[in-house]
Amino acid sequence: MSIPNPTAAAEPTERPLAGLRVAVTAARRADDQIAALERAGAEAFHAPTMRIVPVEDDTALIEETHALLEAAPPTFFVTTGQGINSWLDILEDPLKQRVLDYLSTTQIICRGSKGRGTVRKWGLPDAPSSEKETSTSMVELALELGIADGPVGLQRHGYVPDKALAPLGDRELYVVAPYRWELAEDLAPVHTLVNAIIAREVDAVTFTAAPAVVALFQVAEEMGARTQLLEALDNDVCPVAVGHVTAEPLEDEGLRPLYPERERLGAMVKLMGEKLRSRER
Known about the structure:
This protein is 47% helix and 16% strand. The protein contains 13 helices and 9 strands.
């Protein structure tokens, strides 16, 4: 009687990305992601495309805050709870109290439930949030509810596409951006990544922040390779996002990114194992 080999039976599911090469664009938690991909059998290539400006070093944020308070827009959009926390945590009184006083008397619209929960945590009135948790649906909700004429405020965290704000018309926009990004200090790995994607030397590229997508296309534009990059990502190299918000700039480019329903690193790697197995060379 033959005895089943449990190791052989388990191997396909334990290393579902074996034989695939995956590029990682993350600046934060890159080591965790690379370790997860390698456990799944992939060969990981790291090329961080952007970096976050530390909020404590961001003098522009204070200037933006003063401009917002001076204009006092009757409507204020909250994109993320993390952004609200980062913004208010860095402010000192009396400026912080002035911001809280303003927010307590204005109409707040949230992009998602996390932002709504954070607004409540700061003792502010409960605010509506969009079910789809996208920038577009946030603006649509605001217009459905009715917003006052005049300027609007926006707490921007990461990527907010211009097309999402277009329905607001010619209203003046006052932005506070506690999450500000710049291109990576060392662009050599990004140049290598762009060329590797175009040459189909990687099977997938992962994104855990929407600005990482924008940064990649910006570098490709500067290299004169934007069209070739898009063609590769649309046909042979799979763009993978950690969630629907990160996927938004990819979809704006007409791409069809892979992303999990739950915005978690583990869920992203698991989904890659389920969907990319057939791409093994």
